[in-house]
Each structure stands twice: as C-alpha cells, then as structure tokens.
Amino acid sequence: VQLQAYGGGLVQTGGSLRLTCAASGLTFSRYTMSWFRQAPGKEREFVARIKDGSFSTYYADSVKGRFTISRENAKNTVYLQMNSLKPEDTAVYYCAAVLTAGGYMRNDYSYWGQGTQVTVSS
Questions:
Q1: Nearest in space to 26 (alpha carbons), one of 78, 65, 89, 62
Q2: Closest Cα partner for 78 from 105, 110, 112?
Q3: 3-state DSSP: the chain helix, strand, coil percent, rounded to 5?
Q4: CA-CA distance, 122 to 111, in Å (whole number)?
Q5: How confident is the model over 59-98, as pLDDT tens digits?
Q6: Using one digit for the tens of pLDDT, what is the confidence trace for 3-38?
Q7: Fewer beta carbons within 10 Å, N or C terminal of the chain?
C-alpha cells in the first residue's frame, strides 16, 4: 500500500491550497480516509475524515468551515481543500487510511503517506 500526498506549499494568510493524496495497492473505496497534521514540536493531530461508503465527513473544530475533504474513488484519490488559511495551519499534512469506520487518533490508522509541508505566512 502506498499513499502519496502532495500539493503543499507556501501561502499567505487568507490564501488557499488543495492537497491531494493518491492511493495504490488497496481497494480504495473500502477505506476511510483522513488527513492529519503535525506542527514542529507538537503531536500529530486529526484534521478531517471521509468515510468509505457513506462519504460522510467529520472535521476538527479548528478547521471546520474552512477545510473540505472529498474523495474520488474512481481515481483512488482523496483531497483536502484548505481556504482562509491561518499561520496556525502551518504543519506537515499527512493522509491516512483504515479499513474501518476510522477514528481521530494516530493509532486508529493502518497506512500513512509521507506528508506534505504547508506553510502559511503572516
């Protein structure tokens, strides 16, 4: 299984970025997909989740209303659209996959991408 995350970069406060996670080696449509992030010196934290069958979504309070997670099963891809970015969104963003309903903790997930850096300047 491989998860490849990309799309990060440097953006000013208030700007937007779209992260992409391309999956291979798994039956993508059966997996719940999530995004996590990790800022320097901090624990990895949950950002957003999209379930396998229902496509239902869930967000951390810190990103609710600004970020949108979506998926295209035909392309084995999950996205994270990030709008109204703030300096506190600066982190390495990781995609993760699990063959269950999925949770909000790092240990809930089976597979991880390599991460993509997002830097928001003030």
A1: 78
A2: 112
A3: 10, 50, 40
A4: 33
A5: 999 999 999 999 999 999 999 999 999 999 999 999 999 9
A6: 999 999 999 999 999 999 999 999 999 999 999 999
A7: C
